[in-house]
Write a structure and sequence with these properties.
The protein is an alpha/beta fold and 544 residues long. It has four domains: 168 residues, 3-Layer(aba) Sandwich (Rossmann fold); 63 residues, Helicase, Ruva Protein, domain 3 (Orthogonal Bundle); 134 residues, Zinc Finger, Delta Prime, domain 3; 155 residues, GMP Synthetase, Chain A, domain 3 (2-Layer Sandwich), CATH 3.30.300.180. It has a five-stranded parallel beta sheet with strand order 2-3-4-1-5, with helices on one face. The termini are far apart.
Length: 544
């Protein structure tokens, strides 16, 4: 019998088998129990999180002859076939069938009643790959489908789906699966397969490397098992995926800040010689710098062992870290176009030379002897630069004022031209900032202020450090001066909910004069938590 890969063998066959999407599964099961089945669904989320598997299970469950609590019974003919032999359950790969003709075929066949089942179910995978004309052809069918038809659209890129399509579907966002759930599933598989040469440390590493994708984790487990070794090491796993050990990244950054050019070039060559994906190296360096910034401005965020490592880097000047990050962003962008060793060497040399005159080597070595002295950590936290302090001081006022002047038409006009930022990706003066702005979401726009959100605080720090360049790019695109604010997505959700609650309670925003406010502003605190309290405190909202 031909070998069946583990991800196929352990693909979910029922809702009970789906890992890490409990809320979505509960809603789908309830819709079947209460006979409230929609005509069109869209499942979006990262790869390997269960979108297509859930779609197939749902197709079987709505047609199951004896459903149990909204799930498949597993005993009727439909469940036994798992929909594979049913002509009424049609799966289409939009990546290879993305034209208008394929959609027209669906429109013609959908008019016919199901041959065997209660519902005809059309599962369109990677639906974002459909052409514009194909989407247009699909619209009418989604708007007025026959009662016996159900559409399930699956995509990893929800941003490419036209709003006209989204508005006609029930939308479910599949999240990345947490490491604990992935670990438990892998543990279950090796027990079922009687695999004894893979220990829990290897399973933990596979769970980390999978980045929330269970299918990727099971595939990697399959590859590791195929090594057919008695003692599989973490190095074996890392080599399989072209990843890199965290300790090597820490040593690499240490060589960079010590301005040890020979070691830096040697490390770059070693990575390439071992076929390690250098984009992974850059991503890991960016992540380590982010962790250093978090460590310097928070307490007890990381485990003690990792904090001891980060403490060795705690005296690095924040301006140098941020500049190094800009180069890493630019390098990442270059490597996606041309992954040449010489490009990596040049950028890493530029980053290393940033630290040439800082004499950080002795500071780090001296500090390494005091890693357990947490009082030093608190006494020697890095301060924001003067420009950063000024931005923080103004941020509360700008957030208030952008809400005061928020205008739907202004936002629509702003978003209409926002894609023009991509033109600056090839401009050496603006490419790193343009790359940063592409990750930003304009949330609120007034006539002269824009509030952006970012997925993480590190990107907010970069934005605040380079707000003048941001304003220059916006002026070039929009031919006007905008004040700009950036906050994390978590802080944006807080501000948005606060705004909604204030509207409900009749509390209104009033304009605050920045110049007058500066004169009466109190001295800023150094502790980051107090700074955040200053930025997002309730005092920025004033009742009329």
């Amino acid at each position: 019998m031909a070998y069946i890969s583990l991800y196929r063998k352990y693909r979910p066959r029922s809702f009970a088998d789906v890992v890490g999407q409990d809320v979505i599964i509960k809603i789908l099961k309830n819709s079947i129990i209460n006979n409230k089945i929609g005509h069109a669904y869209i499942f979006s989320g990262p790869r390997g999180t269960g979108k297509t598997s859930t779609a197939k299970i749902f197709a079987n469950a709505v047609n199951c002859q004896n459903p149990i609590d909204g799930d498949v019974c597993g005993k009727c003919d439909i469940c036994k076939n798992n929909g594979n032999e049913e002509i009424d359950i049609v799966e289409i790969d939009a990546a290879s069938n993305n034209g208008v003709e394929e959609i027209r075929e669906i429109k013609n066949s959908i008019k016919l009643l199901p041959v065997e089942l209660k519902y005809k179910v059309y599962i369109i995978d990677e639906v974002h790959m459909l052409s514009s004309s194909a989407f247009n052809a699909l619209l009418k069918t989604l708007e007025e489908p026959p009662a016996h038809a159900i559409f399930i659209l699956a995509t990893t890129e929800i941003n490419k789906i036209p709003l006209t399509v989204l508005s006609r579907c029930q939308k479910f966002d599949f999240k990345k699966i947490n490491k604990i759930d992935i670990f438990k599933r892998l543990e279950y598989i090796i027990k079922e397969e009687k695999i004894n040469n893979i220990d829990k440390d290897i399973l933990n590493l596979i769970s980390d490397l999978s980045d929330g994708g269970l299918r990727d984790a099971i595939n990697l487990l399959d590859q590791v098992n195929s090594l057919n070794k008695d003692n599989i090491t973490q190095t074996d796993v890392l080599n399989l995926v072209g990843a890199i050990n965290k300790n090597l990244i820490i040593e690499f950054l240490n060589s960079i800040i010590e301005c040890n050019i020979i070691n830096v070039i040697k490390n770059v060559n070693d990575f390439y010689d071992k076929s390690i994906n250098f984009i992974n190296v850059v991503n890991n360096l960016e992540s380590l710098i982010k962790d250093i910034l978090i460590f310097n401005n928070s307490s007890n965020y990381f485990d003690k062992e990792y904090e001891d490592i980060l403490y060795n880097f705690s005296k690095i000047d924040i301006d140098l870290l941020l500049k190094a990050s800009e180069y890493l962003f630019a390098l990442n962008n270059e490597l996606k176009k041309n992954n040449q060793r010489v490009i990596s060497e040049i950028y890493l040399l530029k980053i290393t030379l940033l630290f040439k005159n800082e004499n950080l080597n002795n500071n780090i070595k001296n500090d390494s002897n005091n890693t357990n002295n947490k009082n030093h950590k608190n006494e020697e936290k890095l301060e924001f630069s003067v420009n950063k302090e000024e931005i923080i001081n103004n941020k509360a006022i700008l957030i208030n004022n952008v809400f005061f002047g928020a205008n739907k038409e202004e936002k629509e006009k702003f978003i209409k031209k926002y894609n023009n930022i991509s033109e600056y990706l090839t401009d050496k003066n603006f490419n790193s900032i343009a790359n940063l702005l592409i990750k930003a979401v304009p949330e609120v726009v007034s006539k002269d202020i824009v509030l952006f959100s970012f997925k993480n605080d590190f990107e907010v720090v970069l934005f605040d450090k380079n707000w003048e360049l941001v304003k220059k790019i916006l002026k070039n695109i929009y031919k006007k001066n905008y004040d700009v604010i950036a906050i994390s997505i978590n802080d944006w959700n807080i501000e948005k909910n606060k705004y909604i609650q204030n509207v409900k309670n009749g509390v209104k925003y009033t304009y605050i004069d920045e110049k007058k406010e500066k004169k009466s502003s109190r001295k800023k605190k150094n502790d980051l938590e107090n700074i955040v309290e200053d930025i997002f405190g309730e005092e920025i909202i004033v009742e009329e």
